[in-house]
């Protein structure tokens, strides 16, 4: 497997749409979970969530990266400044910023979602996406990138791993900076 990992711009939208499938990944979420307040998200049809993500691909800063194995889309990671995922920053979430950190700080980024094609899970794609996400964040001015993964899922291919596996982040050099709920560490990598 030789992956190509690229920012998802409008030119790559068809590949992301193929990856997510007609349901929109994670039961029609279209990676809106951290982008919208719960009431706003619940009021939206999956087509509206899809349109929201598609519109984000036209922004100057793409909403994430896609992994391609040849022409086949096999994985996605949402990597953005924290300000782009406002629900990630609310006071009641385990991913909320550390005391003193400003979620509107353009240098503080979040890796909030992964989606790996089910038949390709367990092949190291999340490791490759994470490495590329860190490089992408660094290249766009990030001083630090954070994640709030899960320590243990009921199974290795669980949909609950959409936030990523803590073991993958640990291997990439992320350190736990808070753990507000058992099994859901807030992890950070400071850019060198």
Automatic annotation (TrEMBL):
Source domain of life: Bacteria
Organism: Hoeflea olei
GO molecular function: acyltransferase activity, transferring groups other than amino-acyl groups
Entry-linked Pfam families: Acetyltransf_1
Keyword Transferase: yes
Residue ranges occupied by any N-acetyltransferase domain in the UniProt entry: 3-192
Keywords: Transferase
Record protein name field: Acetyltransferase
Keyword Ribonucleoprotein: no
InterPro entries membership: Acyl_CoA_acyltransferase (IPR016181), GNAT_dom (IPR000182)
């Amino acid at each position: 497997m030789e992956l190509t990992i690229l920012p998802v711009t409008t030119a790559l939208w068809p590949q992301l749409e193929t990856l997510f499938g007609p349901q929109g990944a994670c039961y029609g979420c279209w990676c809106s979970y951290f982008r919208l307040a719960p009431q706003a998200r619940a009021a939206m049809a999956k087509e509206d969530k899809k349109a929201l993500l598609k519109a984000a691909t036209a922004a100057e800063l793409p909403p994430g990266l896609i992994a391609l194995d040849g022409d086949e889309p096999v994985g996605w990671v949402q990597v953005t400044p924290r300000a782009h995922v406002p629900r990630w920053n609310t006071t009641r979430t385990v991913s909320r910023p550390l005391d003193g950190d400003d979620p509107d700080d353009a240098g503080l980024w979040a890796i909030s979602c992964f989606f790996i094609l089910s038949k390709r899970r367990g092949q190291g794609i999340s490791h490759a996406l994470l490495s590329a996400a860190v490089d992408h964040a660094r290249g766009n001015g990030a001083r630090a990138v954070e994640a709030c993964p899960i320590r243990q899922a009921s199974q290795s291919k669980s949909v609950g791993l959409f936030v990523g596996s803590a073991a993958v982040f640990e291997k990439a050099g992320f350190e736990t900076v808070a753990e507000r709920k058992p099994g859901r560490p807030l992890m950070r990598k400071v850019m060198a």
